[in-house]
Every structure is written in structure tokens, then in C-alpha cells.
Amino acid sequence: MRDRRKRTLQTLQADRRAWADATFPNQPVAGLLKHLRKEVNETIDALESPNPPEAPHMELADILLLLVGVAGKLKISADALIECGYTKLAKNKLRKWGAMKPDGTIEHIRTVVARPAVSPTSSQSAPKILRRPTGRTILDLEAK
Hints:
Elements: H1 9-23, H2 29-48, H3 57-73, H4 78-94, E1 128-131, E2 137-140
Antiparallel strand pairs: 1-2
Helix pairs in contact: 1-3, 2-3
């Protein structure tokens, strides 16, 4: 019998999490990301092949399932992921974009922001280095 619940990204994430936790207990998020990379590469290879699939739905479904799986492992709900997507889209709409590269990728033009050469005073603390989830670091220049 077919499940009668409304099919949303949130319910898909929850159903996938329940199944994955039972089927692959303790799988690390890095393992999911490596599997995601593998599926993306397979999809690229399939679409660039001499006989690409007419409708790569199932390949894209693999990518979607792994993406919501990674988000779930990182305690990011599907709804939060959608909101982040809209936030990122708004940011991308404001960016300037470079020319397409030979591999088909297009990246935004990175601008260098001048950092003030200020030494901390008694009323300021030294800039704090923050680590983004991506592993990159940013400086927090706000005085505390």
C-alpha cells in the first residue's frame, strides 16, 4: 500500500534518514560526501557520453537523496536547506560572473576586500578568526 503522506523534501529527508540509519549505522558524513561526489561524476560521465540518457531522473534522485542525507547528518533540515538555497540564489544574483571556461563551468568574479590595518586598542580585541563549515577561515573584525 502506498504511503498517503504528503511528499515533501522534509518527509523525504526523514524517510531517507530512518532507512539509512537502519541500513548503514554510523556512516560518517565524509562517506556520504564521497558517495555524493561519485554519483555526481557518474551523472556527468553519463550526460557527456555519446549516448546520454534522455531523462537522467534516477541519477539526479541519487544525488538528491545523498544531499539531504548529508544535510540531515549535519542537523540541517530540508526546510533550512531550501531557505539557504534561496539566500544563496539572492547572493548569486548580485554577483558578477566570468566567462565560461572550456570545461563548461562559470564562476563568480572574486573581489578582494581591503582589510583595515588597525592594531587593537584597549577598547578593541584582536580580530577573531572564525572557521566556516567549509573549512575556510574568515576574520571577525567587529569590536567586542
